[in-house]
Amino acid sequence: MPTAPPPPFVPQMQATPFAVDPGAIRGCLFRYTYVWLNNGEQFWFFPVFVGRTSVAGFRWFGFFWAYFGIDLNRIRSFTCF
């Protein structure tokens, strides 16, 4: 789990023309990652595991990190730092 809060800003969404694939998001493992979902939700995430169809890690809920997993097909875009 991250030991500090995420960066204090919201990055601009990057255009992602195709579905998010495991290889692309694998480069964000153990890094602060901002995620935009297809349903409009957006949040800081700290991925620790990437599977074939899903990613798991810790989601920032404003004051704390909590374990969280999501299917890759629900992610519209992401960017990591």
TrEMBL record:
<feature type="transmembrane region" description="Helical">
    <location>
        <begin position="44"/>
        <end position="68"/>
    </location>
</feature>
<keyword id="KW-0812">Transmembrane</keyword>
<keyword id="KW-1133">Transmembrane helix</keyword>
<protein>
    <submittedName>
        <fullName>Transporter</fullName>
    </submittedName>
</protein>
<keyword id="KW-0472">Membrane</keyword>
